[in-house]
Amino acid sequence: MSSRSWLILAHAYLRVGELDALLDLHGTVDEVVGLPVSRLKDAGLADGKCDAIVSPDGRAIDAALRWLDHEAHRLVAWGEDDYPEVLTQIPGPPLLLYVNGDVDALHLPGIAIVGSRNPTDGGTRNAREFARHLAGRGFAVVSGMAQGIDTAAHQGALDAGGRTVAVLGTGIDRVYPARNRELAHAIAGAGALVSEYPLGAAPERRHFPERNRLIGGLCLGTLVVEAARRSGSLITARLAADQGREVFALPGSIHSPLSRGCHELIRQGAKLVETADDILAELGPLTEHMQQATGNEYSGLRKLLSHDPIGIDELEKRSGLTIDQLSSMLLILELHGEVESLSGGRYAVKEPLQA
């Protein structure tokens, strides 16, 4: 792909639907950015978007291209193989993702963990422990890197040596809040930082509800740990529900304001959970479409598994799949009760229950 062309379109805040209409007429993004204003207006684009495409901010585009010189920095554009399939299923999918870290982390089964920026000690502990357990089972823990529950969720995944993804409400070159600079570095090394906003974008108020749709959209389910009745976490949960994702909530004391948002979600149909295994039990059926989408790969993997334990490194050699692909597929097979994970990163076909 032409990174410059995609960046021009992203800086013009082009929507996916608008791009698809243009591509139907003109073929490639390089051809689109070469169109005159009159042709862009004929396609129905607003004047501001037309001007931004025809006369892009060259300094900002060049800065983004320099950012891409780093080996861990990537652009993932709409329609590419690396674009997360789950995001194609949500309203208003992002045109372009800026990624710092491992793009494969965006393709693992995800669980979002969100909640209050000012949680109780118990809420912080719960978020960290749920994240640690779920990351240890192969889920990518997704959150927004805000202080409080978000930070605890990311840290729990890191504690487990698992994968975690932070979706930012700023440009990917900015850390917000600034106190999470060290955490951001750790997340990029054990997963990915992701943003749909141009480099340098400030933490504007409107960015965070937009960011929240991606947190829920990247995941099979969203867990709310602690939240007041009016909070961004409830926005994330409701957006996730609108996207057809599962919503989970931890109950709390009836006397705590931070329990009221969770209790409201439960009244509205969110699943009440007390342990991470409650979440695993609910998400198993949701992974069926993932097996169907890559049926041949699953068939090949099943042939390599038996009642004799085999390590994931050996599976990597025999299957030709990456560790991330195997981790995702083995998790799904485990959720369906076909395999069991053993100590030392080994897997075996699960013994049937005795009658």
Descriptive report:
The protein is an alpha/beta fold and 355 residues long. It folds into 3 domains: 1-67, no CATH class; 103-285, Rossmann fold; 294-349, Winged helix-like DNA-binding domain superfamily/Winged helix DNA-binding domain (Arc Repressor Mutant, subunit A), CATH 1.10.10.10. It is built from 17 helices and 12 strands. Strand 5, helix 9 and strand 6 (191-195) form a beta-alpha-beta unit. The longest helix is centred in the middle third of the chain and has 16 residues, at 121-136.
Enumerate the spans where pLDDT stays under 50 for 5 or more consecutive residues: none
Number of domains: 3
CATH architecture of the largest domain: 3-Layer(aba) Sandwich
**Beta-strand percent range:** 5-15%
Shape: globular
